[in-house]
Amino acid sequence: MKVKAIIGALSLGMLAFGSSASWAVDAPAGGAASAAVAGAVEIWQDPTAVGTPVGKRGPKTLKFTLESVEVEGILDAAAKTTFKYWTYNGKVPGPMLRARVGDTVEITMKNAKDSEVNHNVDLHAVWGQGGGAAATNVAPGEEKSFVFKAMNPGLYVYHCATKIIPQHISSGMYGLILIEPEGGLPKVDKEFYMMQGEIYTNGAATGHRDFDVPSMLAEHPTDVVINGSRNALFTNPMKVKVGDNVRVFFGVGGPNLTSAYHAIGTVFDKVWNEGTTGAPLLNVQTTVVPPGGSAMVEFKARVPAKYIFVDHALSRFAKGNVAVMVAEGAEVPDVFRTGKLK
Question: Are residues 157 and 66 in the same domain?
């Protein structure tokens, strides 16, 4: 049965489900996510900022600095809404940290002088009290450090663990740390960094939105975002070439929702679920990633297309949950072509 309904209301005109039962991408309503909003800054994280692969090097000492910065950021450029984000280093998610098993890692946690509340960091890769949270609880203007040994390979979430913990996470204080195995990960053509999170606000139609604790406790987010703000990686799409082998580091900051992570128009060739670096799952359509969890996915961009990354709990698409990867190159008719068989 052919589907003829257009689900424009869900997607603000960005995705249509046409009569051929295939997804297509159209121009978004309201302009680019980079449009200026008075008094607010861009907070979305560059998905190509994946750190430096460790390669074949041996263990060494690394130093990372995380600074909590509270900023009025653009939540939805099209609607001209803003939100008081709490961030690591001014972006959501925070920087992707990268090390290898056996490295000795120093983490310095700073809190900007103009912050209003205390912050810290709990890294799921760390053996130690609170994953480092107890050692990094910093008031505005303070900084503290700790050192840990990278023991377990994998892709791990880090987040703020200061009361009220889910409010700090929802406000943007989360990121990923990759502990590569000895010898590093296999080389690919392109790597990307994406994280999903929820934001709970009073739902103001325009202007500043206040955080809403009752909505958070009821687990009813007004926004479900990828890399910090609504549709950020739709209007600022990732770019690859046909034939590229692509790896995505994906995590869920949460604090509450599990993601059914899916890419429309492709199949994940390999999935390392739960952030493991062991044997991957093969030929996966959708992988489940819980809050505070992660996954690595790989696929080959076999045809030119706009691959659309979503949480397949698709009502969340209407709350800003979408990212696009554009694969450019010549058509590959043996894999996909329009029309009928001859």
Answer: yes
